[in-house]
Amino acid sequence: MEIARPYLLFLGDVPDALAAKTAVGIVDWRKDWCIGQIRLPGCAADTGLSDMSISEGASAGAKTLVIGAVNAGGRLPDHWIASIVEALDSGLDIASGLHVRLGDISEIREAADRNNAQLHDVRHNSMTFATGKGTKRSGKRILAVGTDCSVGKKYTALAMDRAMSERGYKSSFCATGQTGIFISGRGISLDAVVADFISGAAEWLSPETEEDHWQIVEGQGSLFHPSFAGVTLGLLHGSQPDGFIVCHEPTRTKMRGVETPLPTIEQVIETTIQLGRLTNPAIQCIGIAVNTAALEDDEALAFLAKVGEKHGLPATDPVRYGMEAIVDKVSAEFGAP
User: Which PANTHER family does the record associate with it (predicted)?
Assistant: First the structure.
């Protein structure tokens, strides 16, 4: 899949920044690939890019309209279709990370056909996967897990990959969601894989490699989320992590989109180790990554210090304070590069 750049990011009319996390993530990690953003009336998200119309974006050189917003179930709202058709008629390709296939919508398919445009369904792929085997394979792996969905697992994995590479480790990022695929250019949207093959897809994504190579695997969902725990468990078993990082957002009391209470960090550590031992008996927690965006600096530092001391682990905000402390933990437990 070759997605033409630069991107024009479509945010629709989503109610908050989390609902536009695909667009925000692309800007945070690949801003140089982006020209601007399109927001419909009522949109409460903002990537910081220049607001443009579709015609302005096309005139500025955009090649692909990326649908950078998500919603529960990955649906495409009917009132977004007109904007997508307009983009196709303006000469742009379309790339989407939603569950719905763009070509299944007649207006979009017809517009793509008459303009000879490409429709990229990043969440879908033509590959078939074997079922997971759980056989120990060479190489080292780190998995980001979470107390909830949308707590920073992707950012944690990307930041860890960058920090380990800068420290001299052989390291690579393994994308398991649509935004990670837009950022890395490779990966699998695991939540679109048939349940029986999730662990096998995770094994394919993080295959046997050199013993000193670290694969940093983007997490999905949470073992405690009633909507997404199945994907999370398959990813845990298939990625067979040697170490995992717990990702947390400290202001939440309920899990996103449901009434289920948020688990504690301790519960996540204990459950991840218990379930992860099925495919890697030596699995261990190597750190805690906290999204402190809602906290002032002194509050954030105090919270990180408290959490780190309580669990005897390095605790950091990957965006604010970097991942050096957790890389130090890797060096102490597994050796320097």
Answer: DUF1611 DOMAIN-CONTAINING PROTEIN, GLL3100 PROTEIN
Q: What is the pLDDT of residues 240-284, one digit of tens each?
A: 999 999 999 999 999 999 999 999 999 999 999 999 999 999 999
Closest CA to 239 of 334, 336, 151, 139: 139
Please tell me if the domain spanning 7-121 has the same topology as the one spanning 140-334: yes
> Mean pLDDT throughout 292-302?
97
Superfamily of domain 140-334: P-loop containing nucleotide triphosphate hydrolases (3.40.50.300)
Which DSSP category does 85 fall into?
A: H
Give the integer Cα–Cα distance in Å for 50 and 57. Answer: 10
Edge to edge, what strands does the sheet with 315-316 contain?
Answer: 170-174, 213-217, 140-146, 243-248, 284-290, 315-316
CATH number given to 7-121: 3.40.50.720
> Comparing C-alpha atoms, which of 169, 139, 174 is closest to residue 156?
174
* Domain ranges for the chain: 7-121, 140-334
pLDDT tens for each residue of 103-149:
999 999 999 999 999 999 988 877 889 999 999 999 999 999 999 99
**What residues are paired with 67 via a beta bridge?**
10, 96
Q: Residue 253 has which token pair?
A: 């009391």
Q: What span, in angstroms and rounded, lies between the C-alpha atoms of 313 and 331?
A: 14
Per-residue model confidence (pLDDT) at position 187: 87
Separation between Cα atoms, residue 123 and residue 239, nearest integer Å: 19
